[in-house]
From TrEMBL:
<feature type="binding site">
    <location>
        <position position="100"/>
    </location>
    <ligand>
        <name>Mn(2+) 2</name>
    </ligand>
</feature>
<dbReference type="Pfam" id="PF07687">
    <property type="entry name" value="M20_dimer"/>
</dbReference>
<keyword id="KW-0378">Hydrolase</keyword>
<feature type="binding site">
    <location>
        <position position="230"/>
    </location>
    <ligand>
        <name>substrate</name>
    </ligand>
</feature>
<keyword id="KW-0482">Metalloprotease</keyword>
<feature type="active site">
    <location>
        <position position="102"/>
    </location>
</feature>
<feature type="binding site" description="in other chain">
    <location>
        <position position="419"/>
    </location>
    <ligand>
        <name>substrate</name>
    </ligand>
</feature>
<feature type="binding site">
    <location>
        <position position="169"/>
    </location>
    <ligand>
        <name>Mn(2+) 1</name>
    </ligand>
</feature>
<keyword id="KW-0479">Metal-binding</keyword>
<dbReference type="GO" id="GO:0070573">
    <property type="term" value="F:metallodipeptidase activity"/>
</dbReference>
<feature type="binding site">
    <location>
        <position position="197"/>
    </location>
    <ligand>
        <name>Mn(2+) 2</name>
    </ligand>
</feature>
<dbReference type="InterPro" id="IPR011650">
    <property type="entry name" value="Peptidase_M20_dimer"/>
</dbReference>
<feature type="binding site" description="in other chain">
    <location>
        <position position="197"/>
    </location>
    <ligand>
        <name>substrate</name>
    </ligand>
</feature>
<feature type="binding site">
    <location>
        <position position="447"/>
    </location>
    <ligand>
        <name>Mn(2+) 1</name>
    </ligand>
</feature>
<feature type="binding site">
    <location>
        <position position="332"/>
    </location>
    <ligand>
        <name>substrate</name>
    </ligand>
</feature>
<feature type="active site" description="Proton acceptor">
    <location>
        <position position="168"/>
    </location>
</feature>
<dbReference type="Pfam" id="PF01546">
    <property type="entry name" value="Peptidase_M20"/>
</dbReference>
């Protein structure tokens, strides 16, 4: 039942809808790409944009500097972690919300239908732009929820702690240290954590997410000649790094997704009968999944196998090669040094250190079989364990009630295939339950071309965040 207070809040959100879309448009226009040195100043610009909104809404804040990094052979300052506080009533529960203000790279020539850093609304009311769903729409949604309470003259139901970072898309450098350091200070009164950096399973039904896969990300370097060579002059007389690298990458995974590294599946938690039954009731349409990937190239043709291989089994993906010729036209060059990138999505109970040892041992052995005179090295760039929380916790119960209130349907309880390493850090450092409460849909295309957030999801998401906080306030711990 929607209370008069929440009805007033919902009506206020509706009245401010166009303002909130314009606000998202401003944020998307800032190309805060964390993984490219040329865009670093824009990540700082985005942090300042948020600070100004904090000030407008009366959110007290701290700007935490987290040091420097070397990127593209340049030493750069890392974007700050923004810690915000709204309310400090000891009689209210305190909820910590986390999100990130950096985005993935995007160029119109990648296949975007419109400039990626201009928010464009389609005739289907989809808000297209880089970061619209991942993660600017959700983090701004939390701030909009504060504003809507103010405009409606409604007392905010909880104390809100905010942790926004600018390096999530590039490994969250420096964030773990901040969380661990602040666990006994800034975060000491937190009762539970909520993260909105994921998506519905499909396009129709909301969900609550209680698990994520971890990740181990690798680069493989093969180098030989001191410089690039002419294939007509040197082809057939030297060991070519590109040939070696292609052969190594081909040894990692089969087209059907089977990981070929010996021992990699030994620590995967076995599938129990009870877990297997939970997949039957989850609403999941394989045709919608095909629509999201814009093809019918799924490995499995049934719901249960697709879901299980999406989030409860490991996967290995090959991402790209640096150093090779990739422009249009023909260039008959032998690259002197090439770097391949791949990642493994980890699941309970896989340990990143053990996986790392297995990967290095296997690739070293496979390289030796090539009998190449080139040099070889494999390095793990970052790793994180999988995360699983208890969906029976009062944090999830409150969120489920809020979903039913806003969408008139009970949510599905799902895990996800992506990785948000900070979930495990918050859970372990604060010893608190962590909830993933998505705003966007399963077809939003985060990290892809034409990333979008449906207008209806954006506005309903703001309502959901407010309803969740009111349910939290009414919940007995």
């Amino acid at each position: 039942m929607i209370t008069s207070t929440l009805e007033k809040y919902f009506n206020t959100v509706d009245s401010l809808e166009n303002l909130y879309v314009e606000r998202l448009k401003e944020a998307v226009a800032i190309p805060s790409v964390s993984g490219d040195a040329a865009y670093r100043e824009n990540v700082f610009k985005m942090s300042q944009w948020l600070i100004e909104l904090f000030q407008k809404l009366g959110i007290s804040y701290e700007v935490v500097n987290v040091g420097t990094q070397v990127l593209d052979n340049k030493t750069l300052k890392l974007p700050p972690v923004l810690l915000g506080t709204y309310g400090n009533d000891p009689n209210k529960k305190t909820i910590l919300v986390y999100g990130h203000y950096d985005v993935q790279p995007a160029l119109i020539e990648d296949g975007w239908n419109s400039p990626p850093f201009e928010l464009v609304e389609t005739d289907k009311n989809q808000l297209i732009g880089r970061g619209s769903s991942d993660d600017k729409g959700p983090i701004i949604g939390w701030l909009n929820a504060i504003e809507a309470h103010q405009k409606a003259g409604i007392e905010f139901p909880v104390n809100l702690k905010i942790c926004f970072e600018g390096m999530e898309e590039s490994g969250s450098e420096g964030l773990d240290e901040v969380i661990c350091k602040e666990a006994s200070r800034y975060f000491k009164d937190v009762d539970a954590v909520c993260i909105s950096d994921n998506y519905w399973l499909g396009v129709k039904k909301p969900c609550l997410t209680y698990g994520l896969r971890g990740i181990a990300y690798y680069k493989v370097i093969v180098s030989g000649p001191g410089r690039d060579l002419h294939s007509g002059v040197f082809g057939g007389t030297v060991h070519e790094p590109m040939t070696d690298l292609i052969l190594l990458l081909s040894k990692l995974v089969t087209p059907s997704g089977e990981i070929l590294i010996p021992g990699i599946n030994d620590d995967v938690a076995p599938l129990t009968e009870n877990e297997n039954k939970t997949y039957e009731s989850i609403e999941f349409d394989l045709n919608e999944y095909h629509d999201a990937i814009e093809s019918k190239t799924t490995i499995y043709d049934d719901k249960i196998n697709t879901l299980q291989h999406r989030w409860r089994y490991p996967s290995l993906s090959i991402h790209g090669i640096e150093g090779a010729f990739s422009a249009s036209g023909a260039k008959t060059v032998l690259p002197a040094k090439v770097l391949g990138k791949f990642s493994i999505r980890l699941v309970p109970d896989m340990d990143p250190e053990r996986v790392n040892a297995l990967v290095k041992k296997y690739l070293t052995e496979e390289f030796s079989k090539l009998k190449s005179k080139n040099s070889f090295n494999v390095e793990c760039l970052h790793g994180a364990k999988a995360w699983v929380a208890s969906p029976d916790h009062w944090n999830y119960i409150a969120a489920a009630k809020a979903v039913e209130m806003v969408f008139n349907v009970k949510p599905d309880y799902t895990r996800e295939g992506g990785s948000i390493p900070v979930t495990l850090t918050f859970q372990d450092a604060l010893n608190k339950n962590v909830l993933l409460l998505p705003m966007g849909r399963g077809d939003d295309g985060a990290h892809s071309t034409n990333e979008k957030l449906d207008r209806s999801n954006y506005i309903s998401g703001i309502k959901l965040f407010g309803a969740y906080l009111h349910e939290i306030a009414a919940t007995k711990i």
